[in-house]
Amino acid sequence: MAFSSFVCLFLVGFLVFAGKLLAEMPDSDDEVPLEMEKKELLGIFEVMGALLEDSDWPLEHPQPCTETQWPGVQCEIGDEDPPMFHVTKIHIGPDILTPPCKSSATLSESLLKLPYLKTLSIFSCFSTSQVTLSPKLFGALSSLEHLALVSNPTLSGEIPSSLAQISSLRVLTLSQNNLQGKVPSKIGALVSLEQLDLSYNNLSGQIPEEIGGLESLTILDLSQNVLEGQLPSSFGQLQLLQKIDLSSNRLGGMLPPDIGKLNRLVLLDLSHNLINGPFPETLSGLQHLEYMVADSNPIKTEVPNFVGKLMNLKTLSFSECGLIGPLPNFLSSLKNLTALSLSNNSLTGTVRPNLGTLPSLDLLNLSNNQLSGELTLPEDFIERLGKRLVLRGNNGLCTSNPLNKKENISSHVIAPLCLNPRGPRDDQTLAGEHPTESERVKPLDQDPVQESSSTGSSWSHVKLNSFGFVFCFLSMLL
């Protein structure tokens, strides 16, 4: 009995002592406080001080990773012992309204004090003072994965070749700035790069052959520059590419056949360049292509045959390309097509009625060509497209159905009424032969007239003869 009492008292005493000991132990967060290295903290203060209007930013955000966070700065915990916070992202943009960028905003070399920085994105910040990309600065940001400097009018100078030293870079977006010079050939060393957007600058020279080294690239946008020369054949090595936009440059010559190897490509925009035809038939290999835009290039051939093999096409635009010949029959096999624009060319022959069977077609622009004959597109198709059916500027085109009187259809969209609506129903006319002069339309500035029988013609002849007889009789009397 005495022994049992002793054990109970011992256990009670032990529990009291253990509870007191645990109560006196510091909390785990207090024992290992998460902080930033002083050099890194000073670095973020200096970087933000060079960008933002608010000089009190360091006072308002003394611990930008913990208690006094700011939405444009993100941090991650490192694997040191003890663990510490590191700045991994800096974002300045219109989605963060306060504080704004100051008029003298610049890129501070104190970015080098942020060795863990993965993302640097600055939008619409450099608009007054001139800013350039320092080769020393960007060559040393070894952890950078995402660099986006966008819509900065006073960001000028050349793209430094030292960017090629950032082997971890996955996204490089330098669009809508005022950058000049050439696309650096060393950029091909960025084997991890997935997106390259240098659009809307003043870059010149040729696209370097070394671009074929970007084996991870999925998006390439070099539009709205002054690039020239022929596309390099190394494009065929970019097997993961899904989007190519080279529009609005001065690129010329013929397309390299190797582009047909890009079997994951979804969008190809070559518009507003100086590219010559014919396009290589190897482009039939672009089996995932959905958008093909080649407007305003001196192609000067018939509609390329490979187009008929691109079954996933949704948009096809070859306006102002000097295209000749008839509308090919294979266009009606592109069942996913939603927009077809072949305006401002020299296409001849008839508008094939089977274009009206395309189930998804929502825009058809064949304006300003040399198309002729009777328009025999299905009436429901014409009414469905309405003003998105554009046929003006084809003076040889007519219709036997006055659809232009319907409310949703403009007279600029539908051709005038045919005088002799026989229509291109024979195989020869469908193959693109022109109708005879007697089958052509009445001029656009006259009212349509139907001559339904020979009776009307004979009656006109009788009236003419009667008038002649009366005129001769009166002459004799005088």
Structure in words:
With 478 residues, the protein is an alpha/beta fold. Helices cover 18% and strands 19% of the residues. It has helices at residues 2-24, 28-31, 38-51, 57-60, 135-139, 379-385, 427-430, 454-477; strands spanning 73-77, 85-92, 119-123, 146-150, 156-158, 171-173, 178-182, 195-197, 202-205, 219-221, 226-229, 243-245, 250-253, 267-269, 274-275, 291-293, 315-317, 324-326, 339-341, 346-349, 363-365, 370-374, 389-390, 396-398. It has a 14-stranded mixed β-sheet, with no helix packed on it. The termini are far apart.
List the helices and strands and how they pair.
Elements: H1 2-24, H2 28-31, H3 38-51, H4 57-60, E1 73-77, E2 85-92, E3 119-123, H5 135-139, E4 146-150, E5 156-158, E6 171-173, E7 178-182, E8 195-197, E9 202-205, E10 219-221, E11 226-229, E12 243-245, E13 250-253, E14 267-269, E15 274-275, E16 291-293, E17 315-317, E18 324-326, E19 339-341, E20 346-349, E21 363-365, E22 370-374, H6 379-385, E23 389-390, E24 396-398, H7 427-430, H8 454-477
Parallel strand pairs: 2-3, 3-4, 4-6, 5-7, 6-8, 7-9, 8-10, 9-11, 10-12, 11-13, 12-14, 13-15, 14-16, 16-17, 17-19, 18-20, 19-21, 20-22, 21-23, 22-24
Antiparallel strand pairs: 1-2
